[in-house]
Amino acid sequence: MGGSSNVVAQSWKLCRAVVEVFSEQYLRSPNANDLVRLLQIGESRGFPVYVDDIVFGSTAKKLKDEFVEFMHSEFEMSMIGELTYFLGLQIKQCPDGIFLNQTKYAKNMVEKFGMKSSKTVRTRLGQQDKLSKDAEGKDVDQKLYRSIIGSLLYLTASRPDITFSVGVCARFQSALKESHLKAAKRILRYINGMSELGL
């Protein structure tokens, strides 16, 4: 816990230092510990900082150029350019909007749990997969099941199509049975055939 707190504190210190260079007014977002927004009349810029990763955006090119120049003068920087990948999210900027997906993460996850060569399915949960406590069912490896659910929950950031099914499976982590593991693996089989979906 202490190490995590130190990382957050250091990230916030970096945010505050950068903000003070650009503006006397700064605002810490109430929704995220790692987000700072800089506000100026008619223009705005902001950057989330996650450990040593910074994403910067601005409504004005001049502000963006000032930020890049400052960061190069103060820190050793790499990969300055259009955002394409951040914290497992792949970002594609298109003429009509921005497309977010986790295709790489999804494919790696399917492979990690040994489902790459499994037969794909077109639905997350089948009609027969009405999960219950299944008290008479066979016990299974809790560590494996929780690992699958944790990985699936992270994928829901860009995959609302699996949110409900993953949520249903997550309810049974404390008393899971073979039927629950089978349902979770079915979601993996679905992702195996639909890994390129996103927002």
Structural features, described:
- By secondary structure, the chain is of the alpha+beta class.
- The chain has two domains: 2-81; 101-193, no CATH class.
- It is built from six helices and eight strands, in the order H-E-E-E-E-E-H-E-E-E-H-H-H-H.
- The strands form two sheets. Strands 1, 2, 3, 4 and 5 form a five-stranded antiparallel β-sheet that branches.
- Residues 24-29 and 32-42 have low confidence and may be disordered.
Strand count: 8
The largest pleated sheet is described as: 5 strands, antiparallel
| General shape | elongated
State the end-to-end CA separation. Answer: 33 Å
| Beta-strand fraction estimate | 15-25%
**Helical run tally:** 6
Summed over residues and divided by their number, the pLDDT gives a mean of 77
What number of domains?
Answer: 2
Order of helices and strands: HEEEEEHEEEHHHH
Return residue spans where pLDDT drops below 50 for at least 5 consecutive residues.
Answer: 24-29, 32-42
Category by helix and strand content:
alpha+beta
Radius of gyration over alpha carbons? 21 Å
What share of residues is helical?
Answer: 40-55%
What structural keywords apply?
199 residues, alpha+beta, five-stranded antiparallel β-sheet, three-stranded antiparallel β-sheet, 6 helices
Write the layout of secondary structure elements.
Elements (H helix, E strand, L loop, with lengths): L1 H21 L3 E3 L6 E6 L2 E8 L2 E2 L2 E2 L2 H14 L10 E2 L2 E6 L2 E5 L1 H10 L29 H14 L7 H8 L7 H16 L6
Antiparallel strand pairs: 1-2, 2-3, 3-4, 3-5, 6-7, 7-8
